[in-house]
């Protein structure tokens, strides 16, 4: 008398066994790996070593994640010169900005009367005609100052 367990494994069973073996080796399980096999593999792997990563496996993962780029010494020196040249230009530009003589080119300050009219316009008893007259006068002063500055 034979039991169903004694029969030859089916193609599905062989595929699942192969996926479980790959999962146990901590390799990629592939898209055809059944979820229960991956769960069982994870539990067995964790029971074996507590989830620790083998040092050689850690080195392989690191090597794959961080490809090593080798720069030629000529290129490294060239970038060093570009960096030094860039810093020199930045220092020269900063010195020119800091040490250059500055002309007083400020706009005329608003007259006290304008500020008082603006403050009173913020209240309910606003005299907008007075605000308009003061603003017109101040705009004229600003435009005259700008015209004088840019005519030079």
Topology, pairings included?
Blueprint: H1 11-24, H2 35-49, H3 55-65, H4 73-99, H5 112-121, H6 128-151
Outline of the structure:
Helices cover 66% and strands 0% of the residues. It contains 6 helices and no strands.
Structural overview:
By secondary structure, the chain is mainly α. Among the domains are: 45 residues, no CATH class; 40 residues. Helices cover 66% and strands 0% of the residues. The chain has six helices and no strands. Helix 1 runs parallel beside helix 2 and helix 5 runs antiparallel to helix 6. The longest helix has 27 residues. It is elongated and about 110 Å long. The termini are far apart. The model has no long low-confidence stretch (mean pLDDT 76).
Helix content: 55-70%
Shape field: elongated
Give the overall pLDDT as a whole number: 76
Major sheet summary line: none
Distance between the termini: 114 Å
Secondary-structure-based class equals mainly alpha
Number of strands: 0
Oligomeric description of these chains: single chain
Order of helices and strands: HHHHHH
Number of helices: 6
User: Spans with pLDDT under 50 lasting ≥5 residues?
Assistant: none
Keywords:
single chain; 152 residues; mainly alpha
